[in-house]
Amino acid sequence: MTKPKVTREDLSRLLQWTREGRIRIPQFQRSYRWEPLDAERLFDSILRGYPIGNLLMWRKPAPADEIYFGELRLAVPALSDALWVVDGQQRLTTLVGALSASGETVDRRFRIFYDLQQGKFVSVSHGRRIEDHLLPVWVAGDNRRLLAWQRKRPWLTEEEFDQCDAVASALRTYEIPMYEIEGDDEQALTEIFDRMNTFGKRLKRAEIFKALHSAPLGLQPSDPEALRDRVSAFGFGDLSPQLLMQSVMAVRGGKVDRDFRQEFTSDADRHSAFTRTEKAIRLVVEFLREEAGIPHVRLLPYALFVPVLARYAALFGRPEGRGAELLRRWVWRGAVGGAAPQGNTVALRRNASAVEGDPVASANRLLQLLPPGGERWRPDLTQTALNRAQAKVNVLGLLSQHPVLLCDITSEGSSYARGTRVDQTRLLVDSLNQGASLLLPVLPGDRSMANRLVHPAGAGEQGKSLLLGDHPEAVLRSHCLDEESLELLQRGQLRDFLERRAAAAQGVISHHVQSMALWGFADGPDPEAWFEDSRSWGDNDAA
């Protein structure tokens, strides 16, 4: 690797290089995370002449592509000497997005204006009327547009004209130090990156990997964000880059939490690893949905199930037969008893290491790693927040009754009729993708699961008003209710209603967990298989 070349580049040149396709942000680097306040502070620093950090660029070839900087979309040609952004993505995206914006731009993070009355930068939502004292930065960055903007506002004071000139001058003259690296010494690049990574929101280890490995060189990029996009198409929700990186390491074997920066020997090796992981996760999602009854990652009690199951699927294929049966027990016993009693990192390492050799033996070893005493578990109906494992178990238990809609609902442009099963529609996935809890309160005040229906909220509807409609017995039963419960609700005997509903919900959840975890049943190889093997051995011996 050559010694870093250091230059100082002004904003207009960086903007020109971006439009020409010379500057590339790896397509699957971490997503744009800044908030409007971050963008306001960035431009305020530029106006004041404060440093905003350095840029670290890696000179490498780039293919013809369609690239994005904020809402700016560009078709760019192939280049042999493109500058790939290793450090500075958030700043460059903000600068290019805001300086290339227009009145039609929607994202507030790029709708940056200088308020001539308050003397500060502000972000303005798309729906708000733009007052005449708000100077857009995309106008201030272009002298011709700025003069036209000023001519339409002859009432501006001399002080306000001076402010316009100060903003325009800052945008025209501000320079950012840029370090340009050429070569393939990733260790040296990693060290430089780690030392420079000090501005803004600090990257995590998985994101350092993405910054270093996302630039394509004849192969499709392979990194956690790319895998994240493809896995999201499975309809199981958004798996984090960290979880996907753990899955990649589990599929490859060895210590799952090892440092991955020196993991791959080539682009081909990296591409192969991510392709294998994608196939494995597809099988994991199918298993969790169809065998374990878990329809979405937000209802998955412990994230470590994914990388461990990915290793199992990569080694043995789709879980089937006795292996699938034991894995389902492992997932559910771990869900209620704690799958990571030693902490997530230790548990992930131990569980992934247990998967090797034989599928049934591997599943049985996973069961043996769980803490004892799970058979004494009882539902905790106080848990309703979906960031807690026990709340997810509660929701999954109630979903096992196949609750139906108590009213017509429209979501994401689709209509769902009253009586439609909540768990058999796109509505469930859409609600979970949007971060909804799926738990609709029946009465105000009580925060327990006894007072919650698994039901997407209708427009302006409350659980009590929905329940007081005319419903068949089967509909009530799907929500752990009966006619007597409804009578208590109608008579205003609310405490008795909640007690009866709590007893019904506890029974349903307990039954569902037991049907999945099967405490009291023999683990290990299928007893019938042992019997068949023994009989076969006897026949051969007699012959």
Query: In terms of per-residue confidence, which ranges show pLDDT below 50 for 5 or more consecutive residues?
Result: 214-221, 533-543
Strand order of the largest sheet: 1-10-3-6-2
N-end to C-end Cα span: 72 Å
Question: What's the helix count?
Answer: 22
Number of strands: 14
Q: Characterize the overall form.
A: flat
What percentage of the residues does DSSP assign to strands (E)?
5-15%
Main sheet overview: 5 strands, mixed
Radius of gyration: 29 Å
Chain-averaged pLDDT: 84
Provide the structure class: alpha+beta
Helicity level: 40-55%
Explain what this protein looks like in three dimensions.
There is one protein chain. This protein has 543 residues and is an alpha+beta fold. It is 47% helix and 12% strand. The strands form five sheets. Strands 1-10-3-6-2 form a five-stranded mixed sheet. A three-stranded antiparallel sheet has the order 8-7-9. The chain has a two-stranded antiparallel ribbon with strand order 4-5.
